[in-house]
Structures are given as C-alpha cells and as structure tokens.
Write a structure and sequence with these properties.
Helix content is 73%, strand content 0%. It has 178 residues and is mostly helical.
Length: 178
C-alpha cells in the first residue's frame, strides 16, 4: 500500500468516525450547523480524496516513465562494457546512448544523474589516460573501476525505482560477454 493510499484510508476512517459521532449525538444537538459541518467535511474529504488520487496517478506515471528511461539507458550503455556490442551495431548503440543520456537528464533523480556523471567523467579521464602507454595491471585496475561505477548507476536506478530495501550486493551482478 502506497503512502497516498494510506493517507486516503486514514482520512476516510477519521471522516467516518466523525460522521458516526455526529449521528449518535442526542437529537437536540443535531442542528443545522452540525449538518452543515458534516456536509462540508464530507465535501472536503471527497475533494482531498480526488486530489490525492490524481497525485498518486501522476507519481505512478512519472515512475513508469523513469523505469523506461532507465531500461533504455542501461541497454545503450552496453557500448562501454567491452565485447557486449557487435562492431556492426556500434554506431546505432552510440546514437541510442546519446538520446537516452539526454532523456535521463529530464527524468532521472539527482542521485542517478550524479552517479551517471561520475561514470562519464571516468570515461573521459580514461580516454585521456589511454593516450599514454599503460601496464596490464593499470588496465585491469581501470576496468574494475569502470565496473564499480557502472554498478553504482544500476544501484541508484534500482533505489529510485522503489527497491530501497534490497539485499543485492555489487558482487551479485555479473558482467557477461559472449
């Protein structure tokens, strides 16, 4: 049950209790003013319920859009993980990445964007460093750093998609290439 649904349920229960108490009061207490207040309260509850329902729908639509954006972005980021994209498809993946990267800046949370930016900065720095000869150990170290940064993006996307109580660890994700 979402927070919005809980709020709606709470409002309905409180409203029901108040209305029930008003109905159970002695007949002489129930005058026009109490009936006006009851009617006003009922109208307010209905308005609040309508507003909350609309807000919940908007949040759900935004979350669904984020999931689509995240799915497309991660799929297009395969170009960065060696051996995942066949050479003949490489340019298509690059163009898809550009589009998905820009789209992420419209929909992604701040934390996702920060981890994505850290990853992109790492890629820029590595391209600069590749201009000089590197040892095999350094290449492996950079490869591991890239995997760690990639996984941080995935974990932030999962958190932002509602998986805040996950027990998944970075070692659970396997980088597979064929």
């Amino acid at each position: 049950m979402t927070l919005g649904e809980i709020v709606i349920l709470l409002i309905l229960v409180v409203g029901y209790i108040i209305i029930s108490l008003i109905k159970k009061s002695p007949e002489h207490i129930l005058n026009r003013n109490l009936e006006k207040y009851r009617d006003e309260l009922t109208r307010n509850i209905e308005e609040l319920k309508k507003d909350l329902t609309l807000e919940i729908s908007e949040i759900e639509a935004r979350d669904e859009q984020k999931r689509i954006v995240y799915t497309n972005l991660i799929a297009s980021m395969s170009i960065f993980i060696g051996g995942r994209v066949h050479r003949q498809n490489y340019e298509t993946y690059v163009q898809n990445f550009y589009t998905n990267y820009d789209t992420a800046w419209l929909w992604a949370s701040d934390e996702v964007l920060k981890t994505l930016s850290n990853y992109m900065q790492f890629k820029i720095d590595v391209e600069f460093e590749k201009k000089s000869p590197m040892s095999a150990d350094r290449i492996e170290e950079l490869h591991q750093q890239e995997k760690d940064l990639f996984l941080k993006i995935i974990f932030e996307m999962r958190k932002d998609s509602g998986f805040t109580d996950t027990s998944i660890k970075k070692d659970d994700y396997k980088f597979i290439t064929f």
